[in-house]
Here is the input.
Amino acid sequence: MTGGTSVPSFFLIIFVKNKQMINSVRNTVLSVLNKNNYGYISPSDFNLYSKQAQMEVFEEYFSQYNKIINMENARMSGTSYANSKKTIEECIEIFSKTSSLTQVTAATNQYYLPSVSTTGFDYYMINKVLCYDASGMTRVYKGEAEKVNHSKITMLVNSMLTAPTEEYPAYEQEYDRMTVYPITINLPGEVDAQYFRYPKDPKWTYITLSNGSPAFDQSQVDYQDFEVPLEDEYKLVVKILQYCGISIRENEVVQFGMAQEQMQEPSFTAKQ
Here is the structure.
């Protein structure tokens, strides 16, 4: 066994990859549970666990990226870390969006932060705020706004030396909106945000067969596959298994999922 961890032989499962990762993940999870008669997980429970598992994987990208940056700053990273950084950057960029922000009120310098109702996505983190002059026929880029804390914005705006300008704008965030300075940035289309959105909630959709069993049906309008890369499929499986083990009160399943997370190579391997 890899990493010296012993697990029951019935856990040695082979992934069968296809374009619908969520169905592949569910089949693997059910196979692990059924091998030892641990019971059945309903589609609704599976979808709930899938949402939580994907969020865990998503948030790990940012923590891993920060760890690598800190290693680089401390001059403790090498070629392998450089390669890891690129891989994580590619994972994070899947969720990168740039959207024009909606004004809270016409002719004001307040804009709504990204949301489902304004940009189509809830945001996880604002990366850049870009300001434009939209008074003419075409937008003209002015500059990237700097984020300023509430405690400093008043002093900054009232200072003759450090007051924000259209070439060097600033902004502060509060609740569901941002205020951009100077106040002359107050037209529709003058503020864009480049942000990282939350992943869409995965949903395994199905039809019910005559015997009462659910059968995968990706043609339904609310179907949604996982959005993380295929390389992270095994992470989704082990995290969902941990949730399943807690749900059915089977400590062995929880321990198995936790053990697999610690391994460089899980005991079920991905194959095309």
